[in-house]
Amino acid sequence: xxxxxxxxxxxxxxxxxxxxxxxxxxxxxxxxxxxxxxxxxxxxxxxxxxxxxxxxxxxxxxxxxxxxxxxxxxxxxxxxxxxxxxxxxxxxxxxxxxxxxxxxxxxxxxxxxxxxxxxxxxxxxxxxxxxxxxxxxxxxxxxxxxxxxxxxxxxxxxxxxxxxxxxxxxxxxxxxxxxxxxxxxxxxxxxxxxxxxxxxxxxxxxxxxxxxxxxxxxxxxxxxxxxxxxxxxxxxxxxxxxxxxxxxxxxxxxxxxxxxxxxxxxxxxxxxxxxxxxxxxxxxxxxxxxxxxxxxxxxxxxxxxx
Length: 306
Ligand code: GUN
Description:
Elements: E1 9-10, H1 13-33, E2 39-45, H2 49-65, E3 68-74, H3 80-92, E4 98-101, H4 111-116, H5 129-137, H6 149-160, E5 169-173, H7 180-187, E6 195-199, H8 206-210, E7 215-218, E8 236-239, E9 243-248, E10 253-257, E11 270-272, H9 278-304
Parallel strand pairs: 1-11, 2-3, 2-4, 5-6, 5-7, 7-8, 8-11
Antiparallel strand pairs: 9-10
This protein binds guanine.
Guanine is lined by residues 54, 100-103, 125, 149, 178, 282.
């Protein structure tokens, strides 16, 4: 890596999200002027506090940019049939531009079956087989279909933070559907042009790989997994994994611990904090998927009326 002028530069996901959301609000105003009010549906099942908070945050984001939040909250003992009925309702609701089913679902529900019933054009998480297939087939540039929000958010955040990935060796840790796997596909597209090593819990000698990385993206969900001895000086560090500490009885809140030990910061050229890095970007990419789907709807209407 070239010698950076300064070490430990923070790439602020909250600030980037603020800028992008202002741009999205302008695009939503334009859509509304053309008779389209974008709506984002959320299906939440049960009372997991983390999931409730995530969904509430997504609804708040929607209001900030002028998207209408449409919420379905089912009880923890909802059946597969109940969840499928909620999916079908959003699939056919013209006020719903797109929607998501908040994961994880209670154990009596088969997640794969639920995802398979989401209309791919309304899949705002970009996690249905058709949308992941479109990602797989996109070699040169991003597809026009909805893209997985966390992976897209990471690439947008690095671009905004002035980090070029062209020709860089990126080591990704984690093979999950939301980040690790799609990142491998997206980072190797020609418009991004990185070389990717995808590590996971079965990787032997993880540090042997991370020490070679120009950019480390850690989505393992293992608190402070990446320590200073595991990186080369001047690498870029992206912290995706979230581990929740115990709830503080005084505040009722649990603090978030990322995958990257903050002792790494003085040695890196740039890092994304956690919280305040990838998280706000994931939420902003969800809004982006909704706005893009609504713009495609408008273009189709205009085309049909010519
Ligand atoms: N649970 C945790 N993160 C996510 C996400 O990005 N989308 C959905 N649907 N569920 C989640």
